[in-house]
Design goal:
Two copies of one chain form a homodimer. By secondary structure, chain A is an alpha+beta fold. The first copy, chain A, has three domains: 260 residues, Bira Bifunctional Protein, Domain 2 (BirA Bifunctional Protein, domain 2, 2-Layer Sandwich), CATH 3.30.930.10; 97 residues, Anticodon-binding domain (Rossmann fold, 3-Layer(aba) Sandwich), CATH 3.40.50.800; 71 residues, 2-Layer Sandwich (Translation Initiation Factor IF3), CATH 3.30.110.30. Helices cover 36% and strands 28% of the residues of chain A. In chain A, strand 15, helix 9 and strand 16 form a beta-alpha-beta unit. In chain A, helix 2 crosses helix 6. The radius of gyration of chain A is 25 Å and the shape is globular. The first copy, chain A, starts with 11 loop residues before the first helix and ends with a strand.
């Protein structure tokens, strides 16, 4: 266990905060509810951005930027939306030394401001679809900060698309949820369950909401991304119609979808351990560190020359940290790079130089291996993707082992009250039964999985007929 | 001249707005003072970001993210800073449905919030330097919007560094100004003059400010980037001291530097013409467009097959638009891609197919050239960097031809009142003489160029001794 990091087994919540603070991923700010994302944390966000942005562009999307401030009158145009968001907004009442004529809300999400622009831009079916994404900061007032997971201000992307038909909008909603699922699994090495949210849990203003849900190491769920089919709700609120091919004027169909810096919290809670952060290789800006080890001056020359040559060789293919700092001892360096989650560490001491070897240490397993100098480049090339796959596999096993098919309400309650996990249980579809479970256990319906089996059953609460199981779990 | 674009010669200011709106770079938003950056404009910002970000990282900087909202009490800690910025801030007074205990300002710039964190992070000389950059939105209240040039909210990057010595801070200030100069010239193809700002024009809270200044096509200056040596002002305001190698506690030295979405305005006003946007190739996400031309069905098959093969060949090296849309005629397509500034257009008609040729059109010169099919890939490879160089050269000539050495005040006044330009004139260094010129002509001292000649002279206003010439010009 690393210095200054509480063990997961003794206090999971404190462990999480310790990892974030000690690995210098983020820090508390003097502004209540806000956090500072430090360079180590922001580097992870950059990797998330780069890869997701490429996936968005590959699916035909472009980026744009809309104003931070939203007039109060816009917020109130879509009834459910204002009810859901207005109470948690920060409000600007003064600008340029003067009180404003109309209050401005810092965007909690941008549907309203964007649809006011789409009204200007959409005339005809030729203007559709619009496939726009925005990378931005948003704000939803919070007093109890949890770094990355719950802060007033956070960074995210929000896609906002406009379509001529309901079918196209639905296809887009599902396409983007699938992009999130692929990204979560292939980059974050985090297995997720894709499905539809219940009516009570959907986005304020949506026809329906889809989500991906991941299981953290404390067996709680974390909603890692959502995709909303907004139907014609925003088009009607902002009167956005288009002339269709047949000359008819019709309301436009909308979707929106987003993921946020919360993903960094999810990443930490999926893989990290009592020594600190564990980064999947594809999320590490610099996936390899070389640490030379020596005591005497004549050792130093030989070790550094050997390490330097290896550094040059590996740098052709990977971003490599060469930690030749003189003021720190090897043990200190090992602990530091473990804390920061660097996937592979290469140690080189005088005996390794003699034997033409290096020591390779994998961050996830902490496994140590002696590798021939001539084989190390190939070994690194092979280990990074292997580690990526094995991290996903390990998380899959964890999720599977802690997911339980439950057919009676007492078992559901006792599992949630006990060790926790995902409960697969039948549900009749009523908001009342959902609320009953939530009140009794704090567990909510995470989603109705797309790939659930067709299975008739009885609602675990009321016994009425059900068409299949849904996932109940406590969530972040 | 393109439809809907006013000629530069008839109304330069209206021409600028027309280009921005018609090329769909930006749009007015319903929030006073704010703009929407549309996908075509944001694509330029992405190119600016990607390239600058790489240059920042190559010079050892990392990115981070600090809160949007700054407590009122922070703003007031540095006396000049609050005086300069507080009057133009947007103020949040309510959050989560409650009035706040302390008002929060939307950041106009982040020195105060960042230095409050540096106080937490800096203990010893080992923690220095800190070389952090932030990509963010900021807000300075404006009622009279000019798209990209003057809006309340804009996007920018702000570097904030902390150093142990005054020398290091000064070196960093100059290094980053030089990064800006290189970027402006090599990417934006926009020649700039680097120099020091006068005391009256420096940043609120800086010891001194350096800038790069560019000449627009209307001969006005545009400040395209600034780099500030903040001395120990912010360290003292936020009490940030470090223990030096000799055991002494010392205040930290600071720099900050930034460029913004204003650069997009500068880019437009440097190169564009009465047909719309002209993009330097290195700023174009997709620098080549292929437009097939045909009338009859049998022409269509041959032309599309020929064009498609070329598209595949060129796509191996460049991002190429293949405009095979059926609903638009070639003339419409030419005008559209000219308006959007795509650097190279390749036209392919039935006769070109017969002759094994294509037509290549350069956006900056509108020069048309017939190229052998077998030579086109090499020609594109060669023309893109050539165009980049020639655009810079053309802008250099423009700047040179409109820069005048002036030795008497009347000539200065008559040039500024007449055709305008950059005036190289002697100045005694007094704020009074600077203010006199500003009041009489609206021209300001843009900067004191680093590369000015050593030349004794007499102040153009008061006749007192001067050590060299400075640049007077009207500015955006």
């Amino acid at each position: 266990m690393a210095k200054n990091i509480t063990a997961r087994s003794s206090d999971y919540s404190k462990w999480y905060t310790d990892v974030v603070i000690q690995a210098k991923l983020a820090d508390y700010s003097p502004v209540k509810g806000s956090m500072v994302i430090r360079p180590n944390g922001y580097a992870i966000w950059e990797m998330i951005q780069q890869n997701l942005d490429r996936m968005f562009k590959d699916t035909g999307h472009v980026n744009a930027y809309f104003p931070l401030l939203i007039p109060e009158s816009f917020m109130t145009k879509e009834a459910e939306h204002v009810e859901g968001f207005a109470p948690e907004c920060a409000v600007v009442t003064h600008g340029g030394g003067q009180p404003l004529e109309e209050n401005l809300y810092i965007r909690p999400t941008s549907e309203t401001i964007i649809w006011s622009m789409y009204k200007k831009w959409i005339m005809s079916y030729r203007d559709l679809p619009i496939l726009i994404n925005q990378w931005a900061n948003v704000m939803r007032w919070e007093m109890r900060t949890r770094l990355f997971l719950r802060t007033s201000e956070f960074l995210w992307q929000e896609g906002h698309t406009a379509h001529a038909t309901a079918e196209e909008a639905e296809a887009e909603t599902l396409r983007m949820l699938n992009v999130y699922k692929t990204f979560a699994e292939e980059y974050l090495a985090m297995p997720v369950i894709a499905g539809r949210k219940s009516e009570s849990e959907k986005f304020a203003g949506a026809v329906h909401t889809y989500s991906i849900e991941a299981m953290m190491q404390d067996k709680k769920a974390l909603q890692a991304g959502t995709s909303h089919n907004l139907g014609q709700n925003f088009a009607k609120a902002f009167d956005v119609q288009f002339q269709d091919k047949d000359g008819q004027r019709r309301y436009v169909y909308a979707t929106s979808w987003g993921v946020s810096t919360r993903l960094i919290g999810a990443l930490i809670m999926t893989h990290s351990d009592d020594n600190g952060l564990v980064l999947p290789p594809r999320l590490a800006q610099r996936p390899v560190v070389i640490v030379p080890i020596y005591r005497k001056e004549e050792e130093k020359t030989r070790v550094l020359a050997y390490a330097d040559a290896l550094h040059k060789e590996l740098s052709a293919r990977h971003k490599v940290i060469f930690d030749d700092r003189e003021q720190y001892k090897p043990g200190y360096k090992f602990a530091e790079w473990e804390l920061q989650g660097i996937p592979l560490r290469i140690e080189i001491g005088p005996r390794d130089v003699e034997n033409n070897k290096v020591v390779l240490v994998r961050r996830d397993t902490m496994q140590k291996e002696f590798i021939d100098r001539s084989a190390i480049a190939a070994k690194v090339d092979e280990t990074l993707p292997l580690m990526q796959r094995e991290m996903l596999e390990k998380a899959r096993v964890w999720q599977k082992e802690n997911t339980f098919n439950v057919d009676d309400y007492d078992s559901l309650k006792s599992i949630i009250a006990g060790d926790g996990g995902f409960i697969n249980a039948h549900w009749c579809g009523s908001a009342d039964c959902e609320a009953t479970v939530k009140e009794a256990t704090k567990a909510t319906i995470r989603n109705i999985p797309f790939d659930r089996e067709e299975e008739k059953g009885a609602c675990v609460v009321c016994g009425k007929p059900s068409d299949g199981r849904v996932i109940f779990a406590k969530a972040y």
